[in-house]
Amino acid sequence: METTEQAVWDQRYSGPDLVWGAGPNRFVTEEAAALPAGRAVDLGTGEGRNAIWLAERGWQVTAVDFSAAGLARAARLAAERGVSVDWVQADLLDYQPAPGSCALVLIAYIHLPAASLARVFRAAAAAVAPGGTLLVIGHDRDNITRGHGGPQDPDRLYTPA
């Protein structure tokens, strides 16, 4: 059964244009470009731009999101660009990547309530293989007063802690 939040994202991803653009997030490219390719999981992939970029660089990528519309768009983009990604429709609160299975675990702009986010972070951290990377990108609480965009609920924003 689709949740209200899923329906919102499905509608958003069903529009005529890409929501975030086709290219990867700049922080993902800055942090992951030099990493040796291996197994990766992109949690909350949306339209798949980061997963596709990783796959183009030889990564074996599993990309997870609860939006069927986002994943359908991502699959089309990947096919157009000639790469293969394992697309998984799942709620991040239920999805459990295999422990120690990934050289890279990516969470880019997942803004859940703090208690739910902590649960996702625990599962993500457990999936990182020895010597692997957990890359988390999100809006900081400072964003409310000093930044732009992103959620305005402090419970959904990040802090260095």
Radius of gyration: 15 Å
Task: Give the helix level as a range of percent.
Answer: 25-40%
- The CATH topology annotation reads as Rossmann fold
| Domain unit count | 1
Report strand %. Answer: 15-25%
In angstroms, what separates the terminal alpha carbons?
35 Å
CATH class: Alpha Beta
Major beta sheet, specifics? 5 strands, parallel
Contiguous low-pLDDT stretches (5 residues minimum) are none
**Arithmetic mean pLDDT:** 86
Number of strands: 5
Number of DSSP helices?
A: 6
The secondary-structure class comes to alpha/beta
Q: Strand order across the biggest sheet?
A: 3-2-1-4-5
Q: What is the CATH superfamily classification?
A: Vaccinia Virus protein VP39
Q: What's the CATH architecture?
A: 3-Layer(aba) Sandwich
What are the secondary-structure elements, in order, as H or E? HHEHEHEEHEH
Shape: globular
Which labels suit this protein?
161 residues; alpha/beta; Rossmann fold; five-stranded parallel sheet; 20% strand; globular
Model description:
- There is one protein chain.
- With 161 residues, the chain is of the alpha/beta class.
- The chain is built from six helices and five strands, in the order H-H-E-H-E-H-E-E-H-E-H.
- The protein has helices at 4-13, 26-32, 49-56, 68-80, 114-127, 143-146; strands at residues 39-43, 60-65, 86-89, 102-108, 128-137.
- Strands 3-2-1-4-5 form a five-stranded parallel beta sheet.
- Helix 1 (4-13) runs parallel beside helix 4 (68-80).
Summarize the structure.
The protein is an alpha/beta fold and 161 residues long. The chain has 6 helices and 5 strands; from the N terminus they run ααβαβαββαβα.
